[in-house]
Design a protein that fits this description.
The protein is of the alpha/beta class. It has a single domain, classed as Rossmann fold (3-Layer(aba) Sandwich), CATH 3.40.50. It contains 7 helices and 10 strands. The strands form 2 sheets. Strands 1-10-9-6-2-3-5 form a 7-stranded parallel sheet, with helices on one face. α1 crosses α2. The radius of gyration is 16 Å and the shape is globular. The relative contact order is 0.18. The mean pLDDT is 97. The chain binds 2-amino-2-deoxy-6-O-phosphono-alpha-D-glucopyranose. The site of 2-amino-2-deoxy-6-O-phosphono-alpha-D-glucopyranose has 14 residues, from α5. It catalyses: alpha-D-glucosamine 6-phosphate + H2O = beta-D-fructose 6-phosphate + NH4(+). Catalyzes the reversible isomerization-deamination of glucosamine 6-phosphate (GlcN6P) to form fructose 6-phosphate (Fru6P) and ammonium ion. Keywords: Carbohydrate metabolism, Hydrolase.
Length: 241
């Protein structure tokens, strides 16, 4: 694991954007695994800026998002579908056919999960996976559990996750209780992983993920076994490391 302590959110975001941009420049048809949440927002802004000002070309990039809430339509402003288009895809030249996000409105969850895994396999797996981290150590929506879930699956969200994400909704009762998430095996098969953490609320999760034992109770701890992980930790999130 390469650990970089960033001097603030801006620095974390710029460093992350440079890594993504480098990946796309070196391999224009890269398969990117993308994350949502507040952490990567400024990284997306910077990539949009690099597209407009420096011609960073996403026309051959393929993307797979980590997760989606079950029961939220694409048009719902709290869906990760909406987040990705609003914050990133609408502002770059990625081809719409190259964008993949789990369908949160599917009538057949198992089939949707199998379809998602099949499409990732058909694209040759993920070249660079971006990850945030939950305060409980989750990655994607892989919640603390007694085992690691390998493939794309339905998740019951932890109370801690529901509370943490309630800030985006009008009321906590509106936060979906279920989601579809890429599994740990798929994430671990990514050639490179970039984990971002911002804010003091992530300090404990980062410490447990990086320095404590590998356990499904802290899903991000599995990353200790990956051969090419860069962790960019904004300084207040690095308090315990
Ligand atoms: C959400 C997402 C994760 C994200 C995490 C942290 O629940 N499913 O992919 O990394 O929470 O979010 P934030 O960056 O807003 O703290």
């Amino acid at each position: 694991m390469r650990i970089v302590i960033a001097r603030g959110y801006e620095d974390m975001s710029m460093r992350a954007a440079m890594i993504v941009a480098g990946q796309v420049c070196l391999k224009p048809d890269s398969v990117l695994g993308l994350a949502t949440g507040s952490t990567p927002l400024l990284m997306y802004n910077k990539l949009v800026e690099m597209h407009h000002k420096a011609g960073l070309d996403f026309s051959n990039v393929i993307s797979f998002n980590l997760d989606e809430y079950l029961g939220l339509a694409k048009e719902d402003q709290n869906s990760y579908h909406w987040y990705m288009y609003h914050n990133f895809f609408n502002h770059i030249n990625i081809a719409s056919g190259n964008i993949h996000i789990p369908n949160g409105m599917t009538q057949d969850i198992d089939q949707e999960c199998r379809r998602y895994d099949r499409e990732i396999r058909q694209c040759g797996g993920i070249d660079l996976q971006i990850l945030g981290i939950g305060t409980n150590g989750h990655i994607g929506f892989n919640e603390p559990d007694i085992k690691f879930e390998a493939t794309t699956h339905k998740v019951k969200l932890d109370q801690e996750t529901v509370s943490a994400n309630a800030r985006f909704f009008a009321d906590i009762s509106e936060v979906p209780r279920f989601a579809i998430s890429m599994g740990i095996k798929t994430i671990m098969h990514a050639k490179k992983i970039l984990l971002l953490a911002n804010g003091e609320s992530k300090a404990d999760a980062i410490y447990r993920a990086m320095y404590q034992g590998i356990t499904p109770e802290t899903p991000a701890s599995i990353l200790q076994l990956h051969q090419d992980v860069t962790v960019i930790v904004e300084e207040s999130a690095s308090k315990y490391i």
